[in-house]
């Protein structure tokens, strides 16, 4: 789940689910896979690129802060452990791509859960997925507004020579972001626009690379490595705050590594032979190795540059400030990335609500009637009143919640805690146990359940740390009023 989710668009380009077999009758198996869909062409390299693009996102900007809470020993160690857990459970999930008896493919995460665990857990999985998607749209609204504020503040400081304190309110920027999302959310099938994947990938690597480069430059300028073995010092924070912030840091790290929700979709682009599972395991190993090295470098260089004062977001005003034009480019890249990524995450929620409403109210003109509007110079735009009202309400709701709780690190930590255990660990472990028919109370069963339990405890601790952080911040923050 980190979180460059425009990868979903890339995956949809590999095949068309509605495939006309008559076009390829003479081609036989050369053009058609065993399920009647166009021949898959994905390799270890393409699957690895999808994973890397999916993981690397705005979560990388909080890793320096996370390491600052844990220190030089526990910080990198926690990142390595989360990387290993993600790799191991991803290999379990990859093994669930095909039914072991029938060989039938599972095209999505939910299909794999349905095939191995049944309908009840599919509903549970769907609830967690939708809740996670909803939370991420809030997190993206906060992150985008912070970056827009950072651009404004950076230019303000530069123009005033540092004399103006440049107090800026969150609210206008969140409203501006929400307004753009209201407009974009009215575009039917927005998630099929292929350019979104390219733009998102370029933007995420742009701001992540700038953050890493600035960290290296800052360490060279300081001529020393800041930080300590145990992290932020007592005195700067109380013992209780240190504990809760350490838990929250684990949630931030978990958020940066989450991508399991689209693993099956990535695997469904891979050609066979060799088996899709074998290819996916290699791709997972390669991509997580690359990502982990990049993450550890970004987190460690940021901590080495700022020490205990490492900011929650490296590219805001409390992080790097010069050269201001490069900071502006990085923050602009974040905003551009998140404008599109918001839609990618919101579209599954839109589709679920609209499909359910249409099924329950098939005779309602408000729900089902499409109005064609001619746009000069373009083709017709299809307006649906229910879509207009419902999607607008959704964006307004996420924007208002963001205005009430504009705390980047707290939200990132909570989202990491919310999604990592069920989607990255619990469901893959349970599906693997069911598929391989691992006997209850056997050594292997006990080991897998112990892993799941340990991660659950970490996730609950991370969630508690994030909630505690929100409560602490609300003591000094006044929604809709406070300027920063």
Structural class of the helix and strand makeup?
Answer: mainly alpha
Main sheet: strands, sense, barrel? 2 strands, antiparallel
Please tell me what the overall shape is: globular
**What is the fold named in CATH at topology level?**
Amino acid/polyamine transporter I
Mean pLDDT over the residues: 79
Please report the distance between the alpha carbons of the first and last residues: 30 Å
Strand content: under 5%
Secondary structure: number of strands: 2
Query: What is the radius of gyration computed over CA atoms, rounded to a whole number of angstroms?
Result: 23 Å
Summarize the helix and strand pattern as letters: HHHHHHHHHHHHEEHHH
The proportion of residues forming helix, as a percent range, comes to 55-70%
Low-pLDDT sequence parts? 1-28
So what's the CATH class? Mainly Alpha
- How many DSSP H or I helices? 15
- Strand arrangement within the widest β-sheet reads 1-2
CATH architectural group: Up-down Bundle
Number of structurally distinct domains? 1
Description:
Keywords: Amino-acid transport, Auxin signaling pathway, Cell membrane, Membrane, Symport, Transmembrane, Transmembrane helix, Transport. Pfam families: Aa_trans (PF01490). GO terms for molecular function: symporter activity. This is Amino acid transporter transmembrane domain-containing protein. It is a multi-pass membrane protein. This protein is an all-alpha fold and about 475 residues long. The protein has a single domain, classed as Amino acid/polyamine transporter I (Up-down Bundle). It has 15 helices and two strands. The protein has a two-stranded antiparallel ribbon. Strand 1 and strand 2 form a beta hairpin. Helix 4 crosses helix 14 and helix 8 crosses helix 14. The longest helix has about 40 residues. It is globular and about 70 Å long.
